[in-house]
Amino acid sequence: MRIDKLLANSGYGTRKEVKQLLKKGVVCVEGVPVKDGKTHVEPTNQSVTVHGEEVHYREFIYLMMNKPQGVISATEDTRDETVIDLLEIEDAVFEPFPIGRLDKDTEGFLLISNDGKLAHQLLSPKKHVPKTYIATVRGEVTEADVERFKVGVTLDDGYVTKPAVLVIKESGPISQIELTITEGKFHQVKRMFEAVGKKVTYLKRISMGPLALDETLELGEYRELTDEEIELLTSLY
Ligand code: URA
Fold first, then answer.
1. How far, in Å, from the CA of 190 to the mean position of ligand 1?
2. Domains plus CATH for the chain?
3. Which of 102, 129, 161 to mutate to test the pocket of ligand 1 (most atoms within 8 A of CB)?
4. Which one of 112, 113, 159, 200 has the lowest number of neighbouring Cβ atoms within 10 Å?
5. Is residue 13 classed as helix, strand or coil in its secondary structure?
6. Could you give the residue numbers annotated as active site?
7. Is pLDDT above 90 for 57?
8. Three-state DSSP state, 1
9. 139: helix, coil or strand?
10. What angle do CA 153, 155, 158 make, to 5 degrees?
């Protein structure tokens, strides 16, 4: 990979700052000063130093965000703010992307990474990765709905959903529920409730696969996954 990208990914600043660093002649590959940002290095085989200190190369970044409403799950958009816009530059330089989508008005757990292989696994319909949501629903959610979600409901386009686990937390004209689904059709939770004549008015994802949302994260905040969390994810999927 290019040395300027390696240094930016390793926390040595933006591409522009890295360029200055290179210009100063303080960056060495195998002990030889390198000034051209385009220079190709193999970070796993070659020693790269800055001011004599070894650069520890890291390829992937794994972030857990508590997505707020009003931002979209994309890397760029001409109109709306994206979840990537909420990242610090030192994380954005890894060029991560959201793994899966939450609607603009949905909050909660969003995994953001540049690990394409993991993304592929987690999003594969074959893997049945469970995703749990809490929601406020207009209308009385009943045991009949629990049963219907268990066998599958027919969405507006004729698709029959896979078995889902619906837990009623509060039932009344406005109900509170928790729902676990193992697929990710467009607007799935909202459309499942529409299929039983009810409307989701608030939606938050609280877990994905083995990971639960870190409740200490305020809306819009994020943190890196711990080594244990990464291990859990990558070993399962
Ligand atoms: N289901 C929805 O309807 N919206 C989301 O954002 C996620 C799941």
1. 6
2. 3-54 (3.10.290.10), 62-125+211-234 (3.30.70.580), 130-208 (3.30.70.1560)
3. 102
4. 159
5. coil
6. 103
7. no
8. coil
9. coil
10. 105
Q: What is the pLDDT of residue 9?
A: 85
C-alpha 138/C-alpha 123 separation (Å) is 29
Amino acid, res. 154:
T
The answer to whether 72 touches 107, Cβ cutoff 8 Å, is: no
Pocket of ligand 1 (CB under 6 A): 102-103, 106, 187-190, 203
Share the mean pLDDT of the chain: 95
Residue-wise pLDDT for 200-226, tens only, equals 999 999 999 999 999 999 999 999 999
**Gap from CA of 41 to ligand 1 centroid (Å):** 42
Ligand 1 centre distance from Cα of residue 61 (Å): 25
**Which protein residue's CA is at the shortest distance from atom 3 of ligand 1?**
187
- pTM greater than the 0.90 cutoff: no
